[in-house]
Amino acid sequence: MRSKAAAQLLQAEGFTQIYNMSGGIIAYEGGKAAGDENQGMEYFVRKNFADVFQMSYAMEEGLKQLYLALAELVEDDKAKALLTRLARFEEGHKAMLRARFSNGAAVDEVIDSESLEGGFDKQQILDHFRGQIRGLEDIIQLAMMLETQALDLYSRLSRTAEDEESKVFFQYMAKEEKLHLGFLSDEYDTLIV
Asked: How many domains are there within the chain?
């Protein structure tokens, strides 16, 4: 999902030679990436702070929508409850972002309920993960994967941010993702005990 979002941002900036692999890293079967860890990250930190904030806010909304959509797929009450709780975390995260970083600016709340993070539509995401979600353990592992990707993104952006406001913002976001991972780790521990 993150690479799809990056591809769309680059396309909007006029880049024409952009490739995004269908199926993402799960579908990847060969070759090795070359380049340094921060290659390409400069694109994200050259935007103004309002754009950075909107991007992060939209990613939180997209993840919330994904959790709610997955909750509709599962039949187990505990699994539904966990996915609903994860969606509430994302809503709470959005509220914290608004309170701490919006500086009174209006936040774009117009989000197409059929579109999720990265421009995927809800059905695409559901089709992709449908076969992978069989119970609580699968849900926790998926959520940990998504939160880890977000932690990775925000950590790298915080190290390369050129202005202090963006750096503080990305550090805050990375810290929040660590908290989410801690919760998920605790939930996972209760399953394997």
From this structure: 1
- CATH number of the domain enclosing 14: 1.20.1260.10
Question: pLDDT by residue (tens digit) across 141-172?
Answer: 888 888 887 888 888 888 877 778 888 888 98
Nearest alpha carbon to residue 58 among 100, 112, 136: 112
Contact assessment for residue 174 and residue 151, using Cβ atoms and an 8 Å cutoff = yes
CB 115, CB 122: distance < 8 Å: yes
Residue 129's nearest CA partner among 65, 40, 176 is 65
Amino acid at 15: F
Q: Which residue has the tokens 């579109």?
A: 115
* Structural domain for 159, as ranges: 2-106+115-192
pLDDT in tens, 93-125: 888 888 877 766 566 554 444 444 444 556 766
> Does the predicted TM-score (pTM) go above 0.85?
no
Q: How many CB atoms lie under 10 A from the CB of residue 118? A: 20
Is-contact 25 2, C-beta < 8 A? Answer: no
The phi, psi pair for 158, rounded to 5°, reads -65, -30
Render pLDDT for 169-181 as a digit per residue (tens, 0 to 9).
889 889 988 998 9
